[in-house]
Predict the structure.
Amino acid sequence: MNGYRARHRRLPLATMAALAAAVLAACSSGSSGASSTAGSAAPAASTVAASSAPSTSTVSAPQELRIGYQAIPNGDLVVKNQKLLEKALPDSTIKWVQFDSGGDVNTAIVAGSIDIGLAGSSPVTKGLSAPLNIPYSVPWIHDVIGDAESLVVRNSSGVTDVKGLVGKKIATPFVSTSHYSLLAALKLAGVAPSKVKLIDLQPPDILAAWKRGDIDAAYVWSPTLDELKKDGSVLTTSTEVSKAGYPTYDLAVVTNKLRTTYPDVVAAWTKAQNEAVTALQADDPGAIASIAAELNLSNAEVESQIKGLTFLTAKEQQSSDFLGTTAAPGKFAASLQSAAEFLKTQGAIDAVPELSTLQAGIDTDAVAGVGGS
């Protein structure tokens, strides 16, 4: 492996009320379908050493830590299933709430419903930009999105390349990383968005529409993607789109309130995420089984899906290609600024933020505090 270990085994009260209303109006459409769980899937056998869990002897923590997650096969599901945070923070109740998209995560954070969330780089960029200006920061890259997000066309359509999508119905969650990659793919193929019919649907709704025959194609992420591929063909992937200059990520966001009030909790959370990534990079059977249990998939299906994502340790995230350090910020903020340019064309933000504004929304202290490799 090279560099960052790219895996061939694989994105005052009145003010808050106004913000919440703005998010509800501006975020990706569709209901969140949010559900709360304290870890409903049966914990899988784990080979992550218990002794490596963050020390809890002096950790100041809230009575309840609320985490928004998505059904994406990455380290977040390992942390959830193996109860790494429960072990690290025994004095806190860990509440996991599932969302369908990053837009819904943004809404929940503004509403004060969660403290930590997972969202793609496009909705996070939207959150860091006006008019939302959500008071949160990015302490962790869950994964670099590759083939795990792809553009799939129904086999019966007869379409064999992106140019052939002219006049077709294409579904994707608007203002998501998939939406960003879809428009980039159309641009690269010389197809104007006005030449196709774009439909805003969340992943579960995309699958339902696909089964009904209501759409011809979709740009979406795993595990929904894998269902579509059963009778569909991939036209392009986020790996290919990234190589053309449009990278996407799945990111963690932490509220500024949690980060400033309970820095030890953010440190413990980051260490748990790093343990999970280290296990995934090592093809740890327990980590694979944890994701399989959370997604109700077989281990083999999970192994196939995670080939489409690149997982980075805390040390790797400190490189110049990613978050960087406080003294030497990485290129990551520039990727967010590129996403902001896309969002501006969609009317989702007022203006493209200055690079310094986006850099201020990156918490490099979290990965720096993990240590090790």
Remarks:
- Confidence is low (pLDDT under 50) at residues 1-33, 38-57.
- The first strand starts at residue 35 and ends at 37.
